[in-house]
Amino acid sequence: MAGVVESREWHLAAYAPEGVPTSDHLKLRTVTLSLDVDSIPDHHLIVQNIFISVDPYQRTLMSGLEDGLYFPQIKLNEVVSAPTIARVIRSKDSSYREGDFILNPSSGPIAEYCVIPSALHLRKVDLASELPLQEYLSSLGLPGFAAWVGIEVLGDPKPGSNVFVSAAAGGVGMFAGQLAKLKGCRVIGSTGSDEKVKLIKEEFGYDDAFNYKTETDLDAALSKYFPNGIDIYFDNVGGEMLEAVHNHVNRHARIPVCGMISQYKKIWTERQGVRNLLNMVGKEVRMEGFLMSSHLNRFGDFAKEIESYIKEGKISSKLKIYHGIESYLESLGSLFTSSNFGKVIIEVQK
Ligand SMILES: NC(=O)c1ccc[n+]([C@@H]2O[C@H](COP(=O)([O-])OP(=O)(O)OC[C@H]3O[C@@H](n4cnc5c(N)ncnc54)[C@H](OP(=O)(O)O)[C@@H]3O)[C@@H](O)[C@H]2O)c1
Q: Which end of the chain is more exposed for a tag (fewer CB within 10 A), N or C?
């Protein structure tokens, strides 16, 4: 490989307080990167990104409003970052060699090539494992872990529990439903198209599912699908669905709040409130927001359990793969239009 490489990277050119970021906000630029190992500081690596995870939280960092959501806002002109799987090209850290594959679970630049500090929480990817590399960004990564924390750690599922999962066909939702099924629960999902309703029943074993876009009366839909009430609601969407759920919760129900994607495109004063939270008191409901980063001490337990489920064929995983770094804008937008199914990932290069 030559001494320099041209690398394309996405940076934030303008904030998008509302809606989905467009090419006015996110721009691709080309930079020239030296591949000379002496050009990087000690304990740094030059890496070539292979897969990039596209996640809803990334949009929340582009509004320019510090309103308490997730992490600090990206600075203008800064490169946008995401969980990545990368190949080490040059290393100034004796723990990593050229050709190693690494998982950068939190903050790899969305770029073709980049320099990263090896002090990040990097994990080497075991190429001897039978699992495809991409699964480290899906079942064995952020979405699988979020589903596991919500269902197994916070949800306290019991055989026969009535479980509801929203955004049930997505990266997190597909695992939340399957994990609850493995615990013997009755699981219903909601999603945004009839095609996805069919697929989550057939591919992920949901007992039943409905399209929240055509079931215009969510209260009536929940009465129909939960005649005995809801014991666990795995919330991915917030808003009117969360409000409707509060009218159907059983005594001591658990609501692990993983995310509220229906509200991410709005400034906080325009977000939808939930008017019937008083039900939490009478029904003694436990509603708890969580971040996976606070549960990392359980990551080993999760990985062991999910890996054996995958090997035994008890859990299936679906990926929506976009190709090339240039697809970031389109793939990010797909999370907000119901056009994705499964975990959205960019394959940067083979
Ligand atoms: N707490 C954590 O640590 C953590 C970690 C990972 C993800 N999350 C959260 O988990 C949720 C799911 O993330 P993911 O990565 O798995 O994304 P995803 O479900 O793969 O993609 C997002 C999905 O949300 C649904 N959606 C979009 N706009 C909506 C709206 N206005 N109302 C209802 N549904 C809407 C769409 O599916 P349909 O409309 O077709 O259903 C879309 O496909 C997000 O809220 C995310 O922020 C949290």
A: C
Name the residue with the closest Cα to ligand 1, atom 31: 262
Contact between 315 and 140 under an 8 Å Cβ cutoff? The reply is no
Question: In CATH, which superfamily holds the domain spanning 4-138+317-347?
Answer: Medium-chain alcohol dehydrogenases, catalytic domain (3.90.180.10)
pLDDT in tens, 103-133: 987 778 999 999 999 877 778 887 777 788 9
Check if 171 has its Cβ closer than 6 Å to any atom of ligand 1.
yes
Q: Which residues of 324-340 are buried (b: 16+ CB within 10 A; e: fewer)?
A: ebebbbebbbbbbebeb
Asked if residue 60 lies in contact with residue 263, where contact means CB atoms within 8 angstroms, the answer is no
Give the pLDDT confidence of 152-188 residue by residue, as tens digits. Answer: 999 999 999 999 999 999 999 999 999 999 999 999 9
Q: What's the CATH fold of domain 142-294?
A: Rossmann fold (3.40.50)
Kindly state the helix (H) or strand (E) to which residue 241 belongs, with its residue range: helix 239-246
122 Cα to the center of ligand 1, angstroms: 25
Whether residue 167 has its Cβ less than 6 Å from ligand 1? yes
Between the CA of 56 and the centroid of ligand 1 the distance, in Å, is 6
